[in-house]
Every structure is written in C-alpha cells, then in structure tokens.
C-alpha cells in the first residue's frame, strides 16, 4: 500500500470548500488572546487565514485555517511552519501546533492525551521556543509521538488539563 504524501492529506475547510491547507492551533488562558500576524511572505500566494476560537472556562484554543496555494518545499517549508507557529505563540499562547481537517483533536481536559489525540499533531512549538517539525509535504505524514504529546501536556499543565 502506498502512503499518501502529506500535501495530499492536508486539507482545511475554507469558504465552504475543502482545499489543501493546514490548521495552526494555539492554547491560551481565556481572555488573553492577542492579535495574530501571518508571516505571509513565507507562504507563496500570500494566503489569508480564517480564525475560529474554541473555549472553556479557563482556556481558549484559537485555530487559524491556512489554505496553501503552493506548498513550500524543503527548508522553506520548515521555516514557514516555524515562523507561523512563532506568530501563534506571539498571541500569548503557551503551546502552538499544526494539524488539519479530520485529524484527532480533543478540547481540554483531554488535550494532548494520546488516548484522544494520537496522530493529531504534525508540528509544534512551546512558548519557550522549543520546536519540532517532522512534517514534510513531499513525504508521507509523520505525526509526533505519543511521548511528545505527553510532554506537551505536561508543559501546558493548568490549561491542557483544565475543565
């Protein structure tokens, strides 16, 4: 069986249509979300994002859906993801990550719990600058490990596990 390339598996819903793209998520204390600036110079065609915000009593999960008009490749792709995650962190988020439509996700208190989100994080960044991007649009999908999910959960303690 041939595995699909990431670029063929990653989609978002934009303007009511399923299009190639990625979702950039963040986790922030409720009421603390700042403004997001997409590093549009990193994304060919300078696409616009659509913001959705999920929330609980203590937390918010902003989600910026980014349609990808042309996939950057190699180091340019990793740089684009890094700079976009930096933009999410700059809004006040404690953790930022990448996924897409149909990937496993769970609100807090189950956020980053492998039982609910295994295979659902494709790249990530913490507010102290740690970063990992195993995602490459020209290779099959390679989500982060369950061990990494648990580390992100520990890092975001108080928000990822909040009611």
**Broad structural category:** alpha+beta
Helix content: 10-25%
Overall pLDDT score: 95
- Return Rg in Å: 15 Å
Strand runs, count? 7
Low-confidence residue ranges: none
Can you tell me about this structure?
The chain is α+β, with helices and mostly antiparallel strands and 163 residues long. It is 21% helix and 26% strand. The chain contains 4 helices and 7 strands. A hairpin with a 4-residue loop joins β6 (123-126) and β7. It starts with 5 loop residues before the first helix and ends in an 8-residue tail after the last helix.
Short summary:
By secondary structure, this protein is α+β, with helices and mostly antiparallel strands.
List strands and helices in order, with pairings.
Blueprint: H1 6-9, E1 11-14, E2 17-29, E3 50-55, E4 59-67, H2 74-89, E5 95-99, H3 114-117, E6 123-126, E7 131-132, H4 146-155
Antiparallel strand pairs: 1-2, 2-4, 2-5, 3-4, 5-6, 6-7
Keywords, separated by commas or semicolons:
21% helix, 4 helices, 7-stranded antiparallel beta sheet, alpha+beta, 26% strand, 163 residues
């Amino acid at each position: 069986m041939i595995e699909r390339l990431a670029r063929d598996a990653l989609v978002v819903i934009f303007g009511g249509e399923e299009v190639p793209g990625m979702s950039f998520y963040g986790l922030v204390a409720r009421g603390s979300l700042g403004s997001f600036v997409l590093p549009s110079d990193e994304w060919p065609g300078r696409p616009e994002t659509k913001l959705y915000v999920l929330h609980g009593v203590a937390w918010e999960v902003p989600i910026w859906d980014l349609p990808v008009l042309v996939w950057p490749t190699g180091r340019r792709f990793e740089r684009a993801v890094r700079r976009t995650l930096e933009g999410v962190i700059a809004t006040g988020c404690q953790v930022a990550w990448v996924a897409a439509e149909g990937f496993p996700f769970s609100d807090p208190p189950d956020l980053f719990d492998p039982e609910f989100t295994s295979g659902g994080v494709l790249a990530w960044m913490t507010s102290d600058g740690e970063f990992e991007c195993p995602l490459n649009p020209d290779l099959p999908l390679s989500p982060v490990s369950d061990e990494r999910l648990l580390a992100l959960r520990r890092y975001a303690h108080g928000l990822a596990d909040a009611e």
